[in-house]
Amino acid sequence: MKDRTSQDMTDRIARLEKRLEREKKARLQAENILEQKSLELYAHNKSLNQNAKLMEAAIVNAKDGVIITTADLDRPIILYVNEAVTRISGYDAGELIGQTPRILQGADTDKRILAELKSCLKQGKSFKGELKNYTKDGIPYWLDISITPVRDENGAVTHFTAIERDITQRKAFEKELQVSREAAEVAKRSMRNFLANMSHELRTPMNGIIGLSELLEDMNLNKEQEELASAIHLSSRNLLILLNDILDLSKIEANELILENMPFDLRVSVQQTVDLLRPIASRKGIILESFISPHVPERIVGDPGRFQQILNNLISNAIKFTESGAVRLDISNSVNADSAAHEIQIRVEDTGIGIPEEKQQAIFDKFMQADVSTARKYGGTGLGLSITQELVDMMNGSIDLESTEGKGTTFYVHLPVVPTTVNADSSLQRVITSTHNNINRAARILVVDDHPVNLLFMRKVLKKIGLDCVDEAHSGREAIAAAEKNTYDLIFMDCQMPEIDGFEASTIIRERESAIGDIIIVAVTADAMRGARENCLDAGMNDYISKPVDVVKLTSVLEKWLPAEEGASCKSEEEFIEPNQKNFFKSVSDANVLDWERLKMFAETEEEEKELIGIFINYAEDSLQTMKVHLDDGDEDSWKKAAHKLKGSAANLGAQRLSELCYEAEKAAYQTSGSEKGLLFERIEGSYSELLAVLKGRATETLVSIH
Ligand code: ADP
Predict the structure, then answer these.
(1) pTM
(2) Which is nearest to 131 in space by CA: 99, 93, 102?
(3) Which of 54, 77, 110, 206 yields a CA-CA distance of 20 to 30 A from 254?
(4) What's the CATH architecture for 596-706?
(5) Candidate of 239, 346, 350, 363 to mutate for ligand 1, largest count of ligand atoms within 8 Å of Cβ
């Protein structure tokens, strides 16, 4: 028994020893793992520590200020500021920690920005903005500030960190810039006003002198009186040229000269200029020749007036500085094969006195004349060529010359041009301007001008044109009263008048119009500045002519608005039938471009047809130009009005597709974006070109039968 017991004990001890052994082993293993983990933890801690130190160093030494606050929005407490904050604010860290950031704010700290900041943080969002703070000494400084909420592992906001950059200097520059920009604007505005006033004040009396001396010349004068009258006429014309040159230069320098951009017939422009100068050349016994290559496009887009000014300056100089021989104008064309860009070369060659080589560049300077004694002999101001050069520059062209003293001079001008897709028959245009029977002579006209000389001039000219029924008003107020009392077909409205000016008078007349009828108001203004035309149209006027009034222009305005044949004019609003509402266009020609039957309803004879087409083209190009100008400038009203006008005249002519497109454009005036409008406008232009092709074919047929 005893043996059994001792055996049991021995077994038990052996088992215990084994277990002990196993536990020892396990502990050793655990100790090893622990040691290993401790080592890893130590290494991790060490790198964390290093990162934190690096981060701290970065924050401490950052150029931008860093502030950490508690997340209490009503009273956030500053927990940490870096050195930049103490440097920018002038406070020690100790003075800031424990305070709220309000300590840094002051009288001019924008409360709205603070409210915005608070609202952002309240929603858990970051804030970015500019804020004015104050140093310890009360000096304001500007901060570009961005504040971000810091969240714990549960997403709760525990702190806010603000990073601030001192932008005081930048703000000062910005302010300086703003002040000088405003000063420049004021200066520009007063320059613009000055120019507009000058332009008006000087051109108005000139208008009177020139116009009346012209009329005087036409009277039965004896020889001496005739000489005096023509001397007045010539001097006043010269004075006007000088005046225009000075005004042009001032406009160029004030950046106020804006080039027009409209399709025009290049040959007609050249012809007009040459015709005007030919008498001067022949008086000197000089031959004036002009040649335009047939490859030069017929119609180009640009500023016809300024184009003529360039030609006029060069040709008149050539005539002026040539004693005998010839002046020759050559215009040719080149097309770049790759870009299809057109360029015209204008060459003005004379057999005159020439320009010494050393003076050849200087003559483009203002008031620069090659030689004082010749300048005295030939007259002039030395402004023509500098204006010419500026105009050529503005048209992205170039000007150059070759000259040999005693032999002659050749000026070369290269101008990039855009030929128009719209290729209206120029002879058709000529028919419109050359016919003098186109005006409705029974029309009743009111001329409004505060200047008696202008009234007199206008009345005489209108009488010459064949209009006898002309009333006068001397002020805006008189004009309104007259328009209320009588029914006028057309009012010539001076723009600048004291008290109620032409703009206001027109607006008032338009407002009361429903009771009066459909009056055409044509602005007559000496204000040749940018926007003058737009201002007139904005005030409800239909058209615009500038002073001094050009008889040819006046005639064409009258032809446009007061055509002799009722049938040839565009019908009034009530008679226009919306293209989509009624099946008005029954017999539609090829591709719906033009319904000839419809056209025939208005124009029974070929003459009438031509006239109607001519008037339509005039109207349409005007409307297209207006629509183009107001494509994306936000002036939807003008876009709409122009679309409306074209819609009506196209429908009356029988151009259904064009009319429908214009109807779309009119409806879309306020809804469609600029680019969509652009597409619509392209379609309108395309449709107009199609129509012109049809009209042109017809017009050529009829024109051939006249010549
Ligand atoms: P203006 O003709 O009024 O004096 P411009 O600016 O038109 O002023 O011309 C400046 C000068 O250039 C002229 O005074 C003249 O000396 C010279 N000039 C211009 N065109 C010619 C030319 N075709 N032949 C000779 N000299 C010319």
Answers:
(1) 0.44
(2) 102
(3) 206
(4) Up-down Bundle (1.20)
(5) 363
